[in-house]
Amino acid sequence: MEYISLPKPYVDVVAECQAHMGEQVTFSGTVHRVRSFPEFSFIVVRTDRALVQCLFQGEEIGGIRREDVRDAMVVKVTGRVHEEVRAENGFEVELSAVEILGKPYDKLPVPLGKKYMGLSLDVDLPLRPITLRHPVKRAIFRVQSAIANGFSEYMISQGFVHMTSPKIVSAGAEGGADLFKVDYFGTRAYLAQSPQFYKQYMCGIMGRVFEVGSVYRAERHNSSRHLNEYIGLDFEMAYIDSMFDVMAMETGMLKYVMEYVKKNCAPELELLKANVPEIGESIPSVTFHEAKQIMLEKFGHKSKNRFDLDPKEEKMMCEYAKEEFGSEFIFITFFPSEKRPFYAKDDENDPKLACSFDLLFRGLEITTGGQRVHDYQEQMDKLNRRGMDASLFESFTIMHKYGMPPHGGLGLGLERLTMQLLGLSNIREASNFPRDMQRLEP
Amino acid sequence: MEYISLPKPYVDVVAECQAHMGEQVTFSGTVHRVRSFPEFSFIVVRTDRALVQCLFQGEEIGGIRREDVRDAMVVKVTGRVHEEVRAENGFEVELSAVEILGKPYDKLPVPLGKKYMGLSLDVDLPLRPITLRHPVKRAIFRVQSAIANGFSEYMISQGFVHMTSPKIVSAGAEGGADLFKVDYFGTRAYLAQSPQFYKQYMCGIMGRVFEVGSVYRAERHNSSRHLNEYIGLDFEMAYIDSMFDVMAMETGMLKYVMEYVKKNCAPELELLKANVPEIGESIPSVTFHEAKQIMLEKFGHKSKNRFDLDPKEEKMMCEYAKEEFGSEFIFITFFPSEKRPFYAKDDENDPKLACSFDLLFRGLEITTGGQRVHDYQEQMDKLNRRGMDASLFESFTIMHKYGMPPHGGLGLGLERLTMQLLGLSNIREASNFPRDMQRLEP
Question: What DSSP line would sit under B145-170, residue for residue?
Fold first, then answer.
């Protein structure tokens, strides 16, 4: 029998080294690159977050021969830190002890030690457990992690309650045929297209809720902006006056997230040469109708799509926002109701329009949101008008039947936001282990 | 065109009222209960988190008749706050304005206004969008939310990086037949039984990672402690000396989470009459072998299960921990390797034992964790010894092949922890929309 005590405090290797200049430090990592000279070698050790240059002098240290230290070995090293302006982070560690904790059994299949690996996605993706060890690649996911953390932290600060929702469902929330089928003990079930119904339920329960969870779309796309499984950052809030309250919340959230990322990911942003947008006190917003006018007047573009913006038009509107307002974000509001979901609230002044919006960022839609129908009769009428069988939605409309507050919310694709923030050209680069039509592994 | 500015600051209704005693306040909520007298009514309004007693005097306020205010109406109310020791939270709001924001279309199917509804699960679960509006029920999920938030916050403070992993996978990580099948564009796929492979990959990439995500088990259980879809709190950490480092991290995490819950959920803990355990500086730990001895010597119980503890034995060991060490938690370590997963590291001193542990809390196993195999040859040998086809695991063992640090981690069931913390008798009470063999809705 023994007692398990609290863990040792966490130590960031770079901070530790910088705090102990001239002294001895011990840390662990993987051999990232070895550069050998006749009398010594530079051994660059990849720690959890950084590269640390170590100096191995002589032929042997404590039984470990210099020539045996090779790429991808996992090591624990001890040595004296000293300033070295030419090394990463401005210091170097002169080794006095080396312990081997793990070893590779084959030569690395990709040049991890190079500044850029220059791999095509076809080579990169199947080898993700290895390729993501590259400092530039893994930096993407540390930024993604910060986006999710910043999102949660902001939501909590605004009185939102973290929620989870089942992903095995009996029906799709967004309609259409793009549902993955699951065999649920012999019953046909589906993977959730969104947490929509559940966040509305929870909004009637808690007032303000958010979720960070998986979303499934069985779309037969093979594009650079679609994944078949992605992470949705969702929130839903009650007692709103209009969808503009939801948009204000998104503005506040994005401002917070951008500041969070800048504060927590400085080394990664530098590695990725990323430029985090400034969100001042507001984000510009135009109606769908205005957007069509703007594209016609400003770009001589006559839009053919009556219900939505196509990718080219999203780029155009972002160009406009940048030029006109110096903003990298722009909201588009009041889309035609016809192609918006059945739970979207229609505009009281013009029922052909939905109180629904998209947010565009650097040329790409990253959010869809809006106010939802909260009145039971209004929801039943809308289902009926669309020729939908309301009896199939009884477990959804039960919440309206027994009273719902006015409410609205949105969903934001984590990978899309990551992609746009970091200027990646394919969404697969912003998903650690992407799922697309051809890919189920790793 | 317009500018969308930042949202109004979030206001907690109770704090707002308490800060404005004697003054006028405005807030929104749902009519929870009405008690009518000849000259006035007490209207208890359920806000996002509390119940607020409002006094409606006279027959009408601004066009709203007193007799028309009924249960489940969503209202925005204005009035003067004054102290009232007999009311919830010690104050009452004397209404001067009432606005109706939403209305019910039918009489509530359950007695939401009662202190306890006294529903069986069969009645409760199908009506969850409504029944969770009850203060006691929704309190469970605010505590659950705090557990998840506290977990994330602690992990981040210890240098762990938030990760996500695909839930549509090509093979199960935990073996067995308990996998839900998914039709993935005509290919057979499964729902992930755990993020095991992915957190090991990410651990080789980031060093320390955590995830809060869905886990799927197609087990044909109909028990009070199993769900077919649940939320796993997972972490994985590199550069450990042994599994005891993982257990220390769990000790620190649980201590933090319990303090977080106490700090952030005081009203809910009171409503639920919950007793949050004290974790001092340690949690006791005994080996599986010792546990068998203890049960024999202390309880005269001769265990028949050579590989695990059964539910009765879990209770027994918790009774022992409580009596002997005053602890509501106890670790059980070094289980027989044979029934532990193929990725578990075997004990160097006795290869028949795995460096694997469970954590028991108030009579129930809530965690399984341990050290993992990190050496490629050791992992290949273990697969082969078990008669498993190593070629099926190439996308997993690729990480070992190119060098892995010693590492380990664990998974904790969020619903199980919630259930045990709050003394719930069925795990379905700790899942907002549970999935079991009979249940796919709501």
Answer: HHHHHHHHHHHHHTT-EE----SEES
